[in-house]
Structures are given as C-alpha cells and as structure tokens.
Amino acid sequence: MKFKAIVLTLILSFFYPFTFLSRLHKNRITFISLEHDNLSKDFKILYEALAAEQRYELKTLLFKFKPTFLGNLRYGLACIRQLFIIQSSKLVIIDYNNFVISKFPHRSKVKVLEVWHATGALKNFGNKVERDYEVKNYDYVIANSDFFKKIYAEAFNLSEKNVLVTGIPNNDKIFDSDFVDKTRKRRLEKYPFIENKTVITYAPTFRGRISTHFREVAIDLERVQKALGSDYIIIYKAHPLIPDSRYADTPNVLFIEDELISSIFCVSDVLITDYSAIAIDWMIFDKPVVAYVPDFKKYSMKPGLTIDYRNEFPGQLAFNEDDLIRALQSCKDDEYKKKRSDFFKKTYQYSDGKSTGRVISMIHSIMNDAL
C-alpha cells in the first residue's frame, strides 16, 4: 500500500500545479466519497436539502474502490479528478478520510467539511492509528456531542474549535416515532417470519486494514442460534467493508446486506456489536446491547478504544461464545438501563431530530464566509 501511495503521490504531483489554473466557483459545493458510488445516508440527506433550496451549484464525485488492478486504475483517475474539482469548489464535503485532500493542500478560499460516516467513535481511527498517510487539511468536522471534540480533533488533525457539534443528520429519522413505526411495519411485511420472535441483530465492525484486507471476527452464529432456541432469530448485518461474508449462508441466521442498519434497528430487540459506533445509534432505541469482543485484550491495545469499555460500555461484555449466549439469555432482566441513559447523555448533545437543519445552517455560514 505504501508503494502504491508513493506512486499515486508522484502522479498527482504532476497535475497538482495545474489545478491552480482552474477557476474557483464561489457557489459550488462538491460531495466526494471513494467508499460508495451513490448518495446515501448523510450525503443523500444534505444533498437533497440543499437541492431543494436551489441556492448552490451541487456536484458529486462518488466512487467505490475495489482492490483489483482495474479498481486501482480507476481509483487513480478518480484522484486526478478530485484534484481539480476540489480546487474549483467553495466547499468540499467528504464522509471518509481523503488521500488527495491530505496530501495536497487546497486553496485558502476552499473549505473542506468532514461529515464522518458514523455517529461517533468507540475505537481509535484517523491519525490515532497506524496509517499510510497523515490525515490533514480538513477545515471543519461535525460531531454528535462535546465528548467527541477532542477525539475528532486528534483523528483529523484540526483544532477543537473546528469540531462543530450539530448532531448527525442520518439519525434524525430514528428520533421520529412515526418513522420507526412505519419502518417496522414494512420490514415485518418483508420478513414475516421474524414477527413474535426476539430479534437479535449482530452488526460488528471490521478487522484489518485496506492494505492487509478486511476480515470478520470469528463466531459460530449457528451454535449461538441453537443455544437460544426457536423463540429467537439472529439477523447478521456485515460491515460495508466486508464484500463477501463467510456467514452469508449460515443456517437459521437471516443475512441482510441491502438494508440500512437504521431500518433493521426498527425490528430489533437486542443488538450485538463490538467496537462499532452503531452502539451509539442504538442508544436512541433504549434496548439491550451486548459487546462480543473475543479479541478485547489485543484490540484495546491496537487500535485502542476511546472509552473505558469495562466500565462505560452500556451493556454486557462477552469474551467468548459461552459468555455471549449467557448475556443474550439474561437480556430480559435489563440491568443496564441506567448505564444506557448515562451513555446516551455522554454521546448525544441533541435529541430533537433537527440535526440536518443545524448542518445546513452551518453550510450556509461557510458559503457566506461567516464561520
């Protein structure tokens, strides 16, 4: 990966001086992602809200990287396009870390807004972990609460005052009970066999890095399902960075790939996760969560965690499958309600479902040089 990064940097360095010849469009906002090829989640919400106002010229550069020869070639071409479109836009909005922005400083009149793809962070990331390049040259990032200001400032290499607590637009809908009820009804119509069962959603984060390939944590979901019995059903939602899950065909486990996790939450009774930030999203539903963390000792050292898991995680920790089965069987006692409440207060500044409006107002301020 480092060799490829060096080669890419050399190629982009040739084009970089020419980007300053391009005209800055003072009314242009560009959405850039190299992790998905369509508008989704926060990008979709913000793009549609801005489009409805008809105040700005909106552009997109959306590309989903694939680790193949052709995928690497297409990625290189997308990076060259980025160089020019970044320098010609008043505001660039990104949702993952961006190699081009970090490596090649943009014009002072161009601003970069990071709309991180998660509600928060329970594991270290960005500049807090081993990387092939330093993350930098971002101007602003949105956050869900004051708790994340220091974490994001260090991860993205910017001042804490530039971490703006607005809430996360994609979570607005799950604060809306009408949305939750309607979504639950639609999902039960689609998956009628889960009705009247205790629905357990297993949604872990990935292991590994892009340079060493992403992988899943080992777990015998069939064994867990059998131990729980027929009154339970497990939904498995793989991380988006896992393209071919080894658990896709596990008997008696519902593998769902094409649903948003927020929609799956609407039919779920218990969440199993690990170090994923979706545990923060789940707090809105105030239902039990279990962390399945068989690699806890290793993971807590590298990449490391942003909270004291043993004392602050708002649910039981399971270090092996037997722990997990016992934790799931005892969830009905729900002794962690107070802990969930405390965790919610720590990770949420707002619960009014109006984060989209706050981010849009912030974008207007950036476009008017008022921020």
Number of helices in the DSSP assignment: 14
Helix content: 25-40%
- Please report the distance between the alpha carbons of the first and last residues: 37 Å
CATH homologous superfamily grouping of the largest domain = CDP-glycerol glycerophosphotransferase, N-terminal domain
Tally of strands: 14
Overall average pLDDT = 92
User: The CATH topology of the largest domain, please?
Assistant: Rossmann fold
Query: Strand fraction band?
Result: 15-25%
What does the largest sheet look like? Answer: 6 strands, parallel
CATH architecture of the largest domain: 3-Layer(aba) Sandwich
What Rg, in angstroms, do the CA atoms define? 21 Å
Summed up, the domain count is 2
Give, in order, the helices and strands: HEHEHEHEEHEHEEEHEEHEHEHHEHHH
What descriptive keywords fit this protein?
six-stranded parallel sheet; Rossmann fold; 2 domains; 17% strand; alpha/beta; single chain; 371 residues
